[in-house]
Amino acid sequence: MSWAFLRDLLSGVNKYSTGIGRIWVAVVFMFRLLVYVAAAENIWKHEHDEFECNIKQPGCENVCFDHFFPVSHIRLWALQLIMVSTPSLLVVFHVAYRENREKHHNMKLYRNPGKIDGGLLCTYLISLILKTGLEIVFLVLFYKLYNGFKIPRLVKCDIKPCPNTVDCYISKPTEKMIFLYFLVATSCLCIVLNLSELSYLIFKYSIKCYLKRDMKKQQ
Q1: What is the predicted pLDDT for the residue at 1?
Q2: How many CB atoms lie within 10 A of CB 215?
Q3: DSSP assignment of 47-115, as one string?
Q4: Residue 126: exposed, middle, or buried by beta-carbon count in 10 A (0-12, 13-18, 19+)?
Q5: What pTM, to 2 d.p., does this model score?
Q6: Is the model's pLDDT at 183 over the cut of 90?
Q7: Between 178 and 104, whose confidence is greater?
Q8: What is the DSSP track for 30-45?
Q9: Is 44 helix (H, G, I), strand (E, B) or coil?
Q10: d(CA 63, CA 60)
Q11: Which domain of life is it from (predicted)?
Q12: Which residues contact 182 (CB under 8 A, 6 or more apart)?
C-alpha cells in the first residue's frame, strides 16, 4: 500500500496548523505512520499462516482464527491512520477555497488565506473534534473486538467444524502486544494533543472577542 497521499496530506496540513497541531502531525508521521510501514506491518504479515491449532480438522483453524481475529490488528490500525488524518482535508479544502475565491475576484480578500480565523477557525475546530472522536471510536473498537488490549499466547476454540475444544497458538504474542500498546499510547497522545489544541484555540479567540468587545464599549 502506498502512503504517499497521506504523507502529502500531513505535509499540507502542517502549513496551516498551530504549534500544537504541528506536534500532532509529527507524532502521526514519525511515531505512527513510519512505525507502521517500517516494522508493524511485517509483524502481522503472516499472522494467519502462523496461527496453529493442535488438530488437523479441515476448516477448524480458519474458523477459530476468524473468531478471535475478526479484523486484523494491522488493517484496523491502517484504517485508523487514514480516518483520523482525513478530517484535516477539511482545512486544506477551505484554504484552497479561499485562494480560489481570491483568484476569481482578482483581488485580495484575506490577509492570509491560511490564517486560522473566521470560517476557517470553525472548519479547524470541526476537524479537531472529528479527529478526537475517531481516535476514541477506534480505541473502543480495538477493545471490544479483542476483549482488551492483550494478545494471549494460547486460545481455546470449540467452534464447529472443530470436533472438540482445541488449543490454538498465536505467533509472536509478546512482540505483537508491545506494538499494540504502542498503538494505544500514541493514539491517547494524539487525543491529548487534539483536546489541548481545541482548548487553546477556543481560549485564544474567546479572549480576542472579549478584548474587541471591550474596546468597542470604551469607544
Answers
A1: 46
A2: 9
A3: TTTT-EES---TTHHHHHHHHH-SS-HHHHHHHHHHHHHTTHHHHHHHHHHHHHHHHHHTS---S-TTS
A4: middle
A5: 0.83
A6: no
A7: 178
A8: IIIIHHIIIIIHHHTT
A9: coil
A10: 5
A11: Eukaryota
A12: 31, 35
Q: 91: closest CA among 124, 116, 117, 115?
A: 124
CA–CA dist 102, 140 (Å, integer): 43
Q: State the Cα torsion 116-118-122-125 to the nearest 10°.
A: 30
Query: If you average pLDDT over every residue of the chain, what do you get?
Result: 82
DSSP, collapsed to helix, strand or coil, labels residue 84 as helix
Which helix (H) or strand (E) element contains residue 155?
strand 154-157
Q: Which of 10-14, 64-68, 74-78 has the lowest mean pLDDT?
A: 10-14
Cell 502529502: give the residue.
8
Is the pLDDT at 3 greater than 70? The verdict is: no
Sign of the alpha-carbon torsion through 68, 74, 76, 80: positive
The pLDDT tens digits for 26-61 are 888 888 877 877 777 777 777 777 788 888 788 888
CATH C-level class of 20-218: mainly alpha
What pLDDT does residue 111 have? 67
